[in-house]
Specification:
single chain, 245 residues, alpha/beta, six-stranded mixed sheet, two-stranded antiparallel sheet, globular, binds zinc ion
Length: 245
Amino acid sequence: MRLFYDLHIHSCLSPCGDTDMTPGNIAGMAALCGLQIIALSDHNTCRNTPAFAACAAKAGVLALPAMELTTREEIHVLCLLPTLPAAAAFSDYVYRRLPDIRNDEAIFGAQIVMDAEDTVVGREPRLLTSAADIGIYDTAALVASYGGVALPAHVDRPSFSLFANLGFFDPAMGFTAVEISPYTEPAAFRRTHPGLEGLVTVQNSDAHELGCIQDAARALDIPERTPQAVIAALRRGAPGGPAPR
Ligand SMILES: [Zn+2]
Ligand SMILES: [Zn+2]
């Protein structure tokens, strides 16, 4: 089945996320946009994913728990997890590898934890946008050990990306999929960046505000509407796999 997706969305738990990016608002906007699969991917945490899953279920949209991990090299990697317990365990693992730097809300913005009623239940004190002590060569295998899949995020961007920070793609990293920003044409980008042939490409909004969540424009072809099917499709990493549009 062909299902419209947006797998990279930030909530108000990301310091750079708009305060309107509550779990309920994101789920509601995704449904209005006609999306069928969405993932909440805050920086280095999955703490808002339980509330988000509940809100998405109410809105009739499949939610994947996710995280945008910042590796030791300051490369952003989108990590998609199969279940809430797996996401919680992965989130704890990453948290233990984040430097204990306090978040200054006046400089970076608030990091708000919410429940499924969009009620504030806490604020994360540690700055979530720091680099975790996890190397890029270890990331794919690490996320796979939690049953998930990891893909270098916005590889076409000039900062916090694989090519900007490292300068090359190495198959030994074990990635089977990459994320390319919606405003870049994937085929053209592949031609100038060797090594990406055969990898699944996805294009997500990386929305930090409600109006940026993408419309029903990009679809995955998967056999069933489950997190496991999405993850399996992105692990396939072969030509003929899911592609945008
Ligand atoms: Zn990013
Ligand atoms: Zn992001």
